[in-house]
Design goal:
Layout: E1 2-7, E2 14-19, E3 23-29, E4 36-42, E5 45-52, H1 54-71
Antiparallel strand pairs: 1-2, 3-4, 4-5
Length: 72
């Protein structure tokens, strides 16, 4: 398990992220300014961080919920 720090590109707030695997692609929300982002982490390094709307964030959350539902 790896622990990494992320810096919000909107407000500069630091947050910690704990990953079980060394790759992640998905939504993230800043704890301080509440902006939404799509992040991509590979080999425990931040590859990209793109802003997204609240609507896009909710759509990604719904997609993940459906994926999890059908995995069972």
């Amino acid at each position: 398990m790896a622990m990494m720090s992320l810096i919000c590109p909107a407000c500069g707030a630091e947050s910690k992220l704990s990953l079980v695997i060394d790759e992640y692609r998905g939504p993230r929300r800043c704890w301080k300014c509440h902006e939404y982002f799509t992040i991509h982490i590979k080999d425990n390094e931040l590859v990209s961080c793109e802003p997204m709307t609240e609507e896009e964030y909710k759509q990604q959350q719904e997609i993940e919920e459906l994926k999890n539902k059908f995995r069972k």
